[in-house]
């Protein structure tokens, strides 16, 4: 059963009527034509709605509870995955999961933020909000990949780094900064995919990459719209206005040169057809990774650093 967002109410009403008619048709009443007419209308409305989403509506789609999470991509795209745990300093953080695996018949290091699908898994993975040990684990895994000359693929899906006092006590800011530094220092291909929310330093810590791919209805920003609204207007109710001002959509960010490619989503969002979405991501990763593999270590490092140094210069 699809969970409809607030702005999808007209679509939900139509699909509810269609479902009612289908139950009636089971009683031998010939209403197939009416069902087909309503279905065509619902399909057109869905397509029209998703072609004209506001930034705030895209934030809601990026947060949809049924949207494919990191584990959904991992299970399909990566063969022989071997997870590696712990930061060798404090402990294990399940918000960031990483390890060795095979993609395109090649060994790779895969690192991703996992939000969880239900209450139990969300608590286990801390709703995808990493603590310092998560970022230090990511550093360890990227350095390990660098040692063995393996490409690194990261999947970004976080509202932001965990803001709790214990995270600050264990050096959250330093862990994020160091993680970005490691991203910029390694001499292997680094490819990042923003699959849902790309929130603040929590996201860029594993996304300072050679190539950044982003799903069509994902978002990527320095702070959540609610947080931005609370700072600027002293009210989270201004979140829609903040989302508009932040330029956090994939369409805005590719124009600004922050990301490199937009991966189209199925009509109605990734949550409506997970299989098709994962296939699209696989094709995009393959297309982006092959050119990077052809470059040597110094070329990769210099290109990555130049990319971020020059960011923001477009249009000046």
Question: How would you describe what is shown here?
Answer:
The chain is α/β, with parallel strands linked by helices and 316 residues long. It has two domains: 6-52; 59-309, 2-enoyl-CoA Hydratase, Chain A, domain 1 (Alpha-Beta Complex), CATH 3.90.226. The chain has 14 helices and eight strands. It has helices at 9-25, 32-51, 55-62, 70-77, 119-124, 132-147, 165-169, 172-185, 200-204, 225-232, 239-246, 250-256, 274-293, 297-309, and strands at residues 79-83, 96-103, 106-113, 152-158, 190-199, 211-215, 219-221, 261-263. Strands 1, 2, 3, 4, 5, 6, 7 and 8 form an eight-stranded mixed beta sheet that branches. The longest helix has 20 residues, at 32-51. The protein is globular. The mean pLDDT is 93.
How do you describe this structure in short?
The protein is of the alpha/beta class. The model has no long low-confidence stretch (mean pLDDT 93).
Calculate the terminal CA-CA distance, rounded to whole Å: 48 Å
Enumerate how many helices there are, as a single number.
14
CATH architecture identity of the largest domain:
Alpha-Beta Complex
Derived from helix and strand composition plus strand pairing, the structural class reads alpha/beta
CATH topology of the largest domain: 2-enoyl-CoA Hydratase, Chain A, domain 1
Q: Specify the CATH class of the largest domain.
A: Alpha Beta
**What is the fourth-level CATH superfamily of the largest domain?**
2-enoyl-CoA Hydratase, Chain A, domain 1
What's the domain count? 2
Number of strands: 8
Largest sheet: 8 strands, mixed
Strand content: 15-25%
The SSE order reads HHHHEEEHHEHHEHEEHHHEHH
What sort of overall outline do the alpha carbons produce when their principal axes are compared? globular
Computed over alpha carbons, the radius of gyration is 21 Å
The overall pLDDT average reads 93
Question: Helical percent range?
Answer: 40-55%
């Amino acid at each position: 059963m699809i969970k409809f967002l607030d702005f999808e109410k007209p679509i939900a009403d139509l699909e509810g009527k269609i479902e009612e008619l289908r139950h009636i048709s089971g009683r031998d009443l010939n209403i197939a034509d009416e069902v087909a007419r309503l279905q065509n209308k619902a399909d057109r409305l869905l397509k029209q709605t998703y072609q004209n989403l506001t930034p705030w509506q895209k934030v809601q789609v990026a947060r949809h509870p049924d949207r494919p999470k990191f584990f959904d991509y991992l299970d399909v795209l990566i063969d022989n995955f071997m997870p590696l745990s712990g930061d060798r300093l404090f402990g294990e953080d399940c918000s960031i999961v990483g390890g060795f695996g095979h993609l395109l018949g090649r060994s790779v290091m895969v690192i991703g933020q996992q939000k969880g699908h239900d209450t139990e898994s969300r608590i286990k993975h801390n709703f995808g909000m990493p603590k310092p040990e998560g970022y230090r684990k990511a550093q360890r895994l990227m350095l390990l990949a660098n040692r063995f000359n393996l490409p690194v693929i990261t999947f970004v899906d976080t509202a932001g780094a965990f803001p709790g006092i214990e995270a600050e006590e264990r050096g959250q800011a330093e862990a994020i900064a160091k993680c970005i530094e490691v991203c910029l220092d390694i001499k292997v291909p680094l490819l990042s995919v923003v699959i849902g929310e790309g929130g603040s330093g929590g996201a860029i810590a594993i996304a300072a990459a050679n190539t950044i791919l982003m799903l069509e209805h994902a978002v990527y920003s320095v702070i959540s719209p609610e947080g931005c609204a609370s700072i600027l207007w002293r009210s989270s109710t201004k979140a829609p206005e903040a989302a508009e001002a932040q330029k956090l959509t994939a369409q805005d960010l590719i124009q600004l040169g922050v990301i490199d490619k937009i991966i189209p989503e199925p009509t109605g969002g990734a949550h409506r057809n997970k299989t098709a979405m994962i296939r699209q991501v696989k094709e995009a990763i393959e297309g982006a990774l092959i050119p990077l593999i052809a470059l040597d270590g110094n070329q990769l490092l210099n290109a990555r650093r130049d990319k971020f140094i020059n960011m923001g210069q477009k249009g000046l």
